Amino acid sequence: MTDQTVASESTVVDGVHYHEFDIVIVGAGGAGMRAAIEAGPGAKTAVISKLYPTRSHTGAAQGGMAAALANVEEDNWEWHTFDTVKGGDYLVDQDSAEILAREAIDAVIDLENMGLPFNRTPEGKIDQRRFGGHTRDHGKAPVRRACYAADRTGHMILQTLFQNCVKLGINFFNEYYALDLIMTEVGGQRRPAGVVALELATGELHVFHSKAVIFATGGFGKIYKTTSNAHTLTGDGVGIIWRKRLPLEDIEFFQFHPTGLAGLGILLTEGARGEGAILRNASGERFMERYAPTIKDLAPRDIVARCMVQEVREGRGAGPNKDYVLLDCTHLGAEVLETKLPDITEFARTYLGIDPVTEPVPVMPTAHYAMGGIPTNNNAEVLLDNDTVVPGLYAAGECACVSVHGSNRLGTNSLLDINVFGKRAGNNAIEFVKSAELPPLPEDPAADVRNMVESLRASTGTERVADIRRALQETMDTNAQVFRTEETLTQVSADIHALRQRYANVGVQDKGKRFNTDLLEAVELGFLLDIAEVVVYAARNRKESRGGHMREDFPKRDDENYLKHTMAYLTGDPHSADPSDHIKLDWKPVRITNYQPMERKY
Amino acid sequence: MSTATQETEPVTPAPLQSFTVTLIIRRYDPEVDQEPHWQDFDVELFPTDRILDALHKIKWEQDGSLTFRRSCAHGVCGSDAMRINGRNRLACKTLIKDLDVTKPIYVEAIKGLPLEKDLIVNMDPFFESYREVQPFLQAHHEPEPGRERLQSPTDRERFDDTTKCILCAACTSSCPVFWTDGQYFGPAAIVNAHRFIFDSRDDEAQVRLDILNDKEGVWRCRTTFNCTEACPRGIQITQAIAEVKQAVITGRVR
Ligand SMILES: Cc1cc2nc3c(=O)[nH]c(=O)nc-3n(C[C@H](O)[C@H](O)[C@H](O)COP(=O)(O)OP(=O)(O)OC[C@H]3O[C@@H](n4cnc5c(N)ncnc54)[C@H](O)[C@@H]3O)c2cc1C
Ligand code: SF4
Ligand code: FES
């Protein structure tokens, strides 16, 4: 399932296919394809993706992409920078946020010039709408900053990027699962030498030997049960990096989006509230007025999600079990819903049988976005400690942590992130490969993957992948969701340990080679378990509340002790019982430029 | 709009009952089977479950070798087009309550593309047709540096319907012409050509019209409407094809 002729130039040694490229990009979502558009024309580039590019979850993004174009009202990138820093509860690296906000304008214009069909103003400019946490003049009032295409902005971005990859003749290896990063040492420095991937169609292994590698593998929402994320968002890239003993940053910060369809987790964009929809409790009260008097329903997600859970806990939830709140869009009118929010209108009708035109929609927070991930600098170069880069290794998009989102990402800043830092990753990789040599491959670079895959295939284990995964997701939802305490985190930590032991005895039923999705689900579960373990371990260690990480036992933000990024390292045997045996936690300072931390009020 | 309270009827759905549904699935394992064969599975489901949930329950609880594609699970990624009771649909957008569960539900791979395993077909021929219509903006007039190209809301609206395509192939693989003539571009490729032909910013409409005027192009379409009925995005495909035919004849797109 490869797209271009160059893709077939490979040699086969001991059943393993060897390919040679300058740059290998892992992931064909927004970040991966944006990188490819920069890298493809200037260097021999391969994009490997476990999904056909257009199936990537960027396509599910709805509401918009932020940029201070000021097309409909006064705005500027400095305000956007401030909002991003404040929204992230001051755990944002402020120089990075400034890059994000400044380069946003070109990022949106690039996409329009590539063909993206944005909604338009009467004058024909890109239209903009309101979104949570985006304000004029440092919090005075909501501002229209989100550029959008109905509630299909991500779909349009993904399609437009794919279309331009087709135009440029980018080499895609579709339905290839990257399972390992090949690391080597050149002149005393650790460097990547390529990637090992499994071809879904044949079950065969491929070694992509390259000078540079870009990770763009997206998030890992599937550690949770209730999530807006796709089944395929299992954090493979983050897991691969972790197993290579490279650090992960701020991994405890996960965003719960306020408005998931109750019981299902399917997202209803914040754009709905941007257009005027209101959250109500059982008695019909607009409860956000009590918690965030200035911007109400458009407060940042961490705050709104907590308020919703609070309402339900205090008995003001709606429905027969009083276990959700209501998103009221009825006053928006059929016209606005059908033209500006058509997809979410249809989701509510299809999946809950509720028509948002006439009835409020049951919603509850849903696991949505990983703020943490693979640490990078502003050039998208991966870090192996607080400041040393791994030459030739890049990461961008949701799998990366720059950090522009700090402890809570603002809506519309991720579609922005994937474009700004995807582009930077591609450009910097091009510069790197101009002067870099192809590093030598270690002997039998596919050995580890072959062992993992073959032992899973041969396993006579009695544990089912689905049972372990469900148990993991349930304990994560119960114990490591919107509210956390030492007690719940201790519980989930013990649960994860038990599940990791069960995983050692996991079996797969499909013993075949071709399209063996049974086996790959087992591999993906391995990544989920590794990531969940470090998420929880880091969450226990942060004894404060900040952004997406709310500790009820430490309800205040504690700048004195915790205004710093978590850096987690795998240091010992990953299978040992106690995470403290094999995970080391360290800190990294936050880069503060213009904005001193203040109390976060909206 | 900022009224603090408002009367809202509490939603009280009736408690849901689960029941047993029989799925009859067309299986094919290329490493074992000479020919595809049908296999029955009984699954306990709720009316609000999707066919995708049923397939997952089978895979996760009964037979791990059952193979299908899926990702988003809510109808936006285009992975899981399949034939359900003889109609092309997305498994994740087909709810059990909308099917007649007194009878078994038949599930098989979409037709007209090479069968690989169970519900998976080879999508390469489909994407090749897509590539052939030059599905990317080709604009020869440069916008002002650092600015967007202007487009009026009306011009934007002109091609809105065909921007919704998720390349699921439900349309193309429901088309009888495509079944008998695999060379035919098929509705999805025409939809994606339409998306650019009628975009006021694009300058190469004629090139695409010439491509689609080919013997494997729009004239193969016999207006059977299968595609329009199959499209999970509600795209008016037959109408889009008619508009392209019209443009081929008149040479006018605006
Ligand atoms: C429902 C929803 C709505 C959203 N709405 C918005 C919004 O309105 N605005 C906003 O800014 N953000 C939004 N977000 C967030 C944003 O969409 C995502 O964070 C962003 O699109 C992630 O892009 P990405 O390129 O990093 O990853 P993805 O698009 O998820 O792509 C990941 C890629 O990696 C590949 N991959 C993964 N593992 C492997 C492997 N092992 N081997 C090979 N390939 C692999 C996949 O095939 C895929 O191509 C939304 C998110 C969701 C879930
Ligand atoms: S036109 Fe509709 S049915 Fe055809 S590929 Fe696109 S979304 Fe699928
Ligand atoms: S799984 Fe994405 S469309 Fe059905």
SSE diagram, text form:
The complex is a heterodimer of chains A (602) and B (254).
Chain A: E1 11-13, E2 16-26, H1 30-39, E3 45-49, E4 65-66, H2 77-87, H3 94-114, E5 128-136, E6 141-147, H4 153-168, E7 171-174, E8 176-186, E9 189-199, E10 205-215, H5 236-243, E11 248-249, E12 254-261, H6 271-274, E13 278-280, H7 288-291, H8 301-313, E14 325-328, H9 333-340, H10 342-352, E15 361-370, E16 374-375, E17 381-383, E18 389-395, E19 400-401, H11 413-435, H12 447-458, H13 465-479, E20 483-484, H14 486-503, H15 517-541, E21 550-551, H16 559-562, E22 564-570, H17 579-582, E23 583-589
Parallel strand pairs in A: 2-3, 2-10, 3-7, 10-18, 16-19, 20-21
Antiparallel strand pairs in A: 1-2, 4-6, 5-6, 8-9, 9-10, 11-22, 12-15, 13-14, 14-15, 17-18, 22-23
Helix pairs in contact in A: 1-4, 1-11, 2-3, 3-11, 5-15, 13-14, 13-15, 14-15
Chain B: E1 19-27, E2 37-45, H1 51-62, E3 81-84, E4 87-90, E5 105-108, E6 115-117, E7 120-121, H2 124-132, H3 153-158, H4 176-180, H5 187-197, H6 205-212, H7 226-230, H8 237-250
Parallel strand pairs in B: 1-5
Antiparallel strand pairs in B: 1-2, 3-4, 3-5, 6-7
The structure holds flavin-adenine dinucleotide (FAD), iron/sulfur cluster (SF4) and FE2/S2 (inorganic) cluster.
